[in-house]
Amino acid sequence: MDLIIKNGTIVTPVESYKADIAVKNGKIVAIGTGFSEEGAKVVDAAGKLVLPGAIDAHTHLAMPFGGTVSADSYLAGTRAAACGGVTTVFDYPMQRKGKGIIETIEGRKEMCDPEACVDYAFHCCITDLNDGAILDEFEAAVNYGITSFKCFLVYKKEGMMVDDGTLVKILLKAKETGAMTNIHAENPDVIDLNIEQFLKEGKTSAWYHYLSRPEFVEAEADKRAIHWAKSMEAPLYIVHMADKEGLEAAITAKNDGHEIYIETCPQYLEFTCEVYKREDGRNFVCSPPMKGQESQDALWKAIESGAIDTVATDHCPFQSYEKDWGKDDFTKIPNGCAGIENLYPYMLSAANDGKISFNRAVELCAFNPAKIFGCEDKGSLAVGKDADIVIYDPNKEFTISVENMHSDYDHTIWEGKKLHGYPVKTFVRGNLVYEDGNFVGKPGIGQFVKRVGRK
Ligand code: URP
Ligand code: ZN
Ligand code: ZN
């Protein structure tokens, strides 16, 4: 054996039990007791939980956006991921007019390969069908391991939005090729109308970011996407769900038997739109914005009930000076916040506080994203899976600060948040990459995760 983790409590989505894990060549080869320790590195996890590494299914690393590029490179973002117990990161490369899917992905893969500190996968954002050539490429993309495509129903001026006709073509082609369609749901025309009005009235603070994109703006687009997915009998994954009305529509469609998956993010579970009234409100500007208390309560209820499938971060940080561009005009604030290092500790702390079970936290952050997105070797602690393992100390107290994070950004919306319990070790395919507050891995060890399409 290369590695034995012994005396810990293993957590799966359905049970927690005491056993040892044996690792060889990056794989879990046995779970039980009494393994020979000869030649193996032995880690004593007594009093600790042993968890599958989390999968952050939604990040934007080195993303050109909002007049700049998001602050975390592949190196910084995946280093931070490792330190927060995330062992696989999904990034969202952006296909642009005239460019192909695989061409787009290979461009980002080239950047990511030498830098990745954890394993990585790509969804591909589609912004233009290139007269149909993109649809013809779906099958090859799925065979390449890109099995999910994202449509923005918003960001019209940024040239990222797709119209309903394009969305329907993508839903159908994704269904035919065993892929998934992911959507960012907000109504762009109503946002633009609101923005125009607010700017005319001199209403320029971050609070008007929220008021230009309130609950019903997201709900309309959620419902529209659900309508098209249902009508086409195509699977749909709604990213960063933040509003109650859209959430309820998605849950109803799921309960009616439609294949709809719901992702939310820790920021929507922790903050409400009240943050936009703060002096530093611009630092919280992301789209969709945080919503009111009713939406937050509905999200937690759906986390508890099982209706929400995944929690991911939408990690897209910008530096303070970039956020400051919008001090006097909320439309100039680059949209996005940090979270990659906070995802698992936040959800596990919620479990430690009794809000959900540890099993449910593992299901939301590891098991479900692996299953939904075809990461066959990831997401659980079971024989034959990759040895992506987190050792979690339920008794460690931790206060988030930009000083103890491992990204490249200079502030965090999570500053001062107290967590009960914290990861103390992260292994990626058996390699130790994080230990007791320090990154101990190597850039370049992360590998591309070739995903499988839906059967
Ligand atoms: O504000 C956000 N969420 N920025 C990243 C891009 C997106 O919409 O996911
Ligand atoms: Zn989005
Ligand atoms: Zn996003």
From TrEMBL:
InterPro entries reported in the protein's UniProt record: Amidohydro-rel (IPR006680), Hydantoinase/dihydroPyrase (IPR011778), Metal-dep_hydrolase_composite (IPR011059), Metal_Hydrolase (IPR032466), Metallo-dep_Hydrolases_sf (IPR050378)
GO CC annotations on file: cytoplasm
Residues recorded as bearing N6-carboxylysine in the entry: K150
CDD domains the UniProt entry points to: D-HYD
UniProt keyword annotation of Metal-binding present: yes
Broad class of enzyme this protein falls into: hydrolase
GO molecular function annotation: dihydropyrimidinase activity; metal ion binding
Required co-factors: Zn(2+)
Entry keywords, A to Z: Hydrolase, Metal-binding
Keyword Hydrolase: yes
Signal sequence residues: none
Residue ranges constituting the Amidohydrolase-related domain according to the UniProt record: 49-433
Post-translational modifications reported in the UniProt record: Carbamylation allows a single lysine to coordinate two divalent metal cations.
Pfam families: Amidohydro_1 (PF01979)
EC numbers on record: 3.5.2.2
Family membership: Belongs to the metallo-dependent hydrolases superfamily. Hydantoinase/dihydropyrimidinase family.
Name this protein carries in UniProt: D-hydantoinase
Taxonomic placement: Bacteria, Bacillati, Bacillota, Clostridia, Eubacteriales
